Structures are given as C-alpha cells and as structure tokens.
Amino acid sequence: MGYTAEDLIERSIPFVKQVKNRTAGTSLEAWLNEHHGPGTPVYDDLAAMVEEGVRTGWAADIEVEGRRYRRSRIAEPQERLEWFSITAVYMDSEEVFRGQYHQHPYGELNMVVPLVPGALLRGPNGWCGAGWTAPAPGSHHYPESKGGPVIALFFLPAGRISYDIVPPVERHQVPAL
Asked: So which domain of life are we looking at (predicted)?
C-alpha cells in the first residue's frame, strides 16, 4: 500500500483524542477491545500500517536483542497526538521470550498484532492475541511473547517508559551464596 510513519501518526490522532483522558488498566483494556478491537477501523487500519512498517523497515527497525526483538519510536509526544508517543516493538519466538524489564509511569495502551495464528503477547491480564492490553500507571513487567512473531504498537502518555527499574527477585530463584 505504501504506508508511511506519517500515515500511522495521522490515523492515530482520532484514536488518541478518544483516550486522552482515560486511565490505563483493566477497565480501559476491556473498553479498547470492545470499541477498537480486531475488525474495527482503528485496529485494522493501524495493524495494516504497522505490519507494513515492520516489513519495509520504518517500524521496529532497531535491534534490541538481534532480529527477533526490535523496536522503534514512531512518534515522540507532541501536541497533535495529545502528548502520547507511539512505539512499535517486534518480538518473534515460539517458546516464551522475555524482553527488557520496564515500568509504565503513566500506563500504556498496547495494540497487539499477531503476524501468525497463535502468536501471543502477555499483558497484565494474561496472554493476548489480536487486541489490546493496557498496563496501569506504575506497572512494571518483562514484555513476553510466544507462538511466533507479534507486533506491539503502543501509545505512552507523555512518552514515559522507564528501563532503569530493577526487576524483583523471582520466587523460584535461589539466592547466590
């Protein structure tokens, strides 16, 4: 189709105007899936654009851990986007794969776009196929995927994401002596 990052930004403007005063969390996640889930114009348009962006190299083009874990900031927070940023992440693994631990100071609206049937991304309410997750303000986690390639197109209020948080010690880990 010849989509560009600017096309994705322009298509996102009506969406962010609708969500700008909502707080990320379980209730917003349900609302997003009901009103903007797969089969709706917002989801289908943005999914087509970001899929093409990943395929042609203008989205999720910066390797974090090789070709299977990439991301890129498509738009910095700006007035026309109601001060949201837009980032694309590509993860590809059949087995559970963990990305970089991070925190969402103001929450996150995350559109999940599986590229093959069965590809999943873990959200705050469990594994998610096509649809939305919405980690609440102050939440922190490892992004995880499984079942094949998946894109996460996420909208961050004020562009805030923190990678300087230390992950908690997992219960099944044995401390070093």
From this structure: Bacteria
